[in-house]
Write a structure and sequence with these properties.
alpha+beta; 2 helices
């Protein structure tokens, strides 16, 4: 599911490529090209299980965290808000069908709060923002 969410963001937000400047699940030691990750990137993370409803077996409330990093505070903030403006409040999006082979519809995507600065800067002199989202989704 998080791969599909990452692909949705890549398909609709300019400037980032999954595996090169955007990563799913974790920050790798090396990119697809074998180089260290760049200083400017975003991650899609899942830190909690999806909420489910026994009466609606194909429905989930999938919580994800989008973590942005950049060499300057304003660049990290701009990237976080670019993704926030795309995702927050969206409804009716079909997620790309990827590795799971399952088709999902994002009924509603909401941010828990606006992007927040975290670790500014971290030990590598990189600025970070985090935003948590809830994808209320249904399997098609």
């Amino acid at each position: 599911m998080i791969q599909e969410i990452g692909q949705l963001i890549e398909d609709n937000v300019q400037g980032f490529v999954v595996g090169t400047t955007a990563f799913i699940g974790h920050l790798p030691i090396k990119t697809k090209a074998g180089t260290p990750p760049p200083a400017r990137y975003w991650l899609v993370l899942e830190n909690t299980p999806a909420g489910v409803n026994g009466d609606l077996p194909d429905y989930q409330e999938k919580e994800v965290q989008i973590w942005n990093a950049a060499p300057s505070y304003m660049a990290a903030r701009a990237d976080a808000y670019l993704i926030y403006k795309f995702l927050h409040g969206q409804a009716g999006w079909a997620l790309p069908v990827l590795t799971s082979g399952e088709a999902w519809k994002a009924n509603v995507i909401t941010a828990v709060a606006s992007p927040a600065p975290i670790l500014n800067p971290d030990d590598k002199k990189v600025f970070n923002f985090s935003t948590n989202y809830i994808f209320r989704i249904t399997r098609l």
